Write the structure tokens for this entry.
Amino acid sequence: MFHVKSDPNFKKNYFKKTKSVCPECLTTIDAEIYEEDGKIFIRKSCKEHGNYKDILSSNADYYRWTHWKGDTWGWEKDGNPNPPDVECKDERGCPWNCGLCSEHKSACTLVIIEITNRCNLSCNFCFANVEKTGMLIEPSLEEIGRIMDHFRNKPIPATAIMFSGGEPTIRSDFVEIVKMAKDKGFKEILAATNGYGFQKIDGEQYANVCRENGLDTLYLSFDGIHEETWKTTRGVPLKEYKERVLENCRKAGLDSIVLVSTVARTVNEIEIGNILQYAIDNIDLVRGIVFQPISLCGRVSHEEVNTLRITNADVLKAIEKQTKGALKVDRDWYPLSTIVEFGRAIAWLGNQEPIEITCHPDCGFSTYLVMDPDENKMISILEYMDPMAVIDFATKFWAKLKDRKAPTFFSNIAGDSWKKLARTLDDGLAWLDKQQLKARFALGILPYIKKTGKQMEIFTKMILTGNWDNVSSFAYGSLLIGSMHFQDAYNFDIERVKRCVVHFGISMPDKTVAEVPFCAMNIFHRENIEKQIAVPYKKKTIGDDLE
């Protein structure tokens, strides 16, 4: 299990000291993460508000493996953070100095811009809604462009951007915003949407225009297949609504949809298998599923914590049970940070912008299902390869590659009049060097491929070309499945937020851009920031009304 070598330390109960916050007053306090009865908990004590205990994982063995510091693994990967944007002036330290500050350990890979807090729905789990607060938050095109520039002009630029809300497609200029992101060089453009713009009468045309202007993926909220589930999670029946979204996108050729399910115990955990099957039934345009164990922020009361709490490990266990073992907890799932060195090697070999997924191992897990043409069914990608062997090879390869210098042979011997030609010749040597390194990388991985297939051919092509664009081709006919648990004040670990790679970008009144990690935003900064940027809501002045 878990692909680890025999080590007596691995079986010891997990224990670690960290920092957290009091869920009542948000004061930074000491905390302990520890193992008890086969589960992992966090406990802490506030002098004013008392003791708190919350579960982090229902599977201590798997948790220990992801954090193991033995002679092989431990998935806490150091990132290459960008220079800080703000000074650490708040004496409370992390996470109160976000901006970003010098304590952050990872560069941003996914930018989130909330382009409006208007929405056509009023979901139970929403962080904010203009109809309830009476305050509008809707940055101008100029402000949105400023945020994009902030992230694209960093030494390590963000490669992906997500527009969220509220409901982003309510804005009449949404397509213009998408085009702006494409023009500024973002590689992947996503819309976190309930599908509003895509399910309307002209939804097919709308989807086509969005696709033509650069929208790559719909990050579509999808909590189940039964109307009772939708009524519980979103307040209204949405089954036909969601089906219209998929059909209009299918007709328009917008064939990259990720189903995003907020999962809460006693609410919709029984729908996990149904969502998986729904994705497989629509594999022509559904590329992935992201399960999000509910973050107990927003309008969820303190008393509901024990009732609603579900962890990543619970989701993985439910997937194994509801798929009758097609995906197994101890075989198929890996922390998102697993592929850091592999990604760095691919980017270096292909002269691509690096993708630094150096988030904390507790943040999320993922795996792939691919179509087996012989059996005509979806099977785990691990039937095709030995992942730990591939990861081990890529890690060692990157260790030798990362400090490799560009050739300067001709430049060192050329006179001043030949410098330009010498640089051209050295560039030729560098090109040849990378070609042979690509071949070595591919040949080094091939022994760990168990069986051939379309996905493995694309995988090999991606390695040989060194081009992440081939990931899109890899996605067709396969299904990425992930579970990502955002933090709340009850289970908060400061070490996690320091490694966050998903950052909000907010244009502030002084024309600066605040960059705030996802979990820190919702717990610590949202209320203060929104007070500065919100204006009174007057529906009749906001452009297009909801239908």
About this structure: The first strand starts at residue 15 and ends at 21. The longest helix spans residues 419-445.
